[in-house]
Amino acid sequence: MSVNIVHTYRGDLQIDLIAPNGTSTRLKNSSSSDGAANVIATYPVNTSGSPRNGTWQLKVTDVYSGDTGYINQWSIQF
């Protein structure tokens, strides 16, 4: 699972992958000590217990206020 998220302070972000059956997998916790910009990363995800067909969602939560960002791109491979 690959993500490319533009954000001025990546430590603000909490990232979850939501499977079609509603199962949520935490990819990244927020961290007040991570002040770098952007999240460009690959995360290992075990999808064996989730259906491949259906809508997969990437949920990104900015747990602090004061800056903005956007999901530039994300992908998952089975």
UniProtKB/TrEMBL annotation:
Source species: Tahibacter harae
SUPFAM superfamilies: Galactose-binding domain-like (SSF49785)
InterPro entries linked to this entry: Galactose-bd-like_sf, P_dom
PROSITE patterns documented for this protein: P_HOMO_B
Pfam families, A to Z: P_proprotein (PF01483)
P/Homo B domain sequence ranges: 1-78
Protein's UniProt name: Proprotein convertase P-domain-containing protein
Record's keyword terms, sorted: Hydrolase, Protease
